[in-house]
Amino acid sequence: MRISFAGGGTDVSPYPEREGGAVLSAAIRRYAYASARIREDDQLVIRSLDLGLTSEGRIGELSQLDQRLHLLSGPISSLASDGRGVELRVQSQAPPGSGLGASSTIVVAVVGALLAAYGRSGSADEIARAAVEIERQDLGLAGGTQDHYAAAFGGVNFLEFNADDVTVNQLRLPSATIATLEHNLLLCHLGASRESATIIDDQSERYNNDDGTTGAALARQKELALEMTQTLLAGRLDDFGYLLNEAWLAKQELSPLISTEAAVAAHRIALDAGALGGKITGAGGGGYMLFYAPFDCRFEVAQALAEDGFSVLNVYFDDVGLESWTGA
After folding, report:
1. Does CATH place domain 174-314 in 3.30.9.10?
2. Which residue of 151, 155, 184, 297 pairs with 274 in a disulfide if CB–CB is 3.0 to 4.6 A?
3. Tens digit of pLDDT for each residue in 10-30?
4. By the 8 A CB rule, do 59 and 73 touch?
């Protein structure tokens, strides 16, 4: 899964087609897992271990599956083309609405599992593109495209989006920069999130009917993604923390649904305790808020948030991306 530092929203259509988008994000060590086993008959068995759901039927009857497993039908419909059934099991270390790109990461994991099971392969770019097409076009689910690329590629990336292409610029940061970021970043859980599609639809409508505010906020998000990339490459991490706060201010201009009372409270507590900045990691409305707290006050920030009832997690990066393998 991933944390997004700046640029979120500029990867959501129609902005990238019109203006070109840019996002700075990093893959983290929280994962979605999928396993696939090809059957010799035409039966389909899907198990969501997180939801405790099992759905069974013929491979040609995907539309009759439990709607709560609708997200998994897209990859199967796209990749299970030879008529044979498949047994699919999925598990996620974060629920949908966490703001960590969980749903899109599941789609990437399922695509990788199915390709491995059918003896096929694909590059990280091809898998990310396939996952985007499945989720956004085939299933018609609203959202951006950054999550799929973070899951497929791993690492810290400056992503550029336009009408026809996505460019992944992987940042080769010094180990000291990575270690400092991992220490100084905190994830604070704000509670259950609104469905991200609702917020994204509101943001897109505001952009299409814009009076200047939403478009300007998106343009600032794109600028901040580049500015924050430059601070990371230069090792100016406190400046990165301050810019994270600017990204939060710009993000709130995209839709009134993004911020919540819990977000306002957590942000105040963290900054009062010494954090330099913080922002919600996904579409908003809940999920996780990311804070940057310098080394000498990081413990105090985490303690202040915990004392007010917030759950606080450490951040660890992952530079590998999607891994697929076959076994017995």
Report:
1. no
2. 297
3. 999 999 999 999 999 999 999
4. no
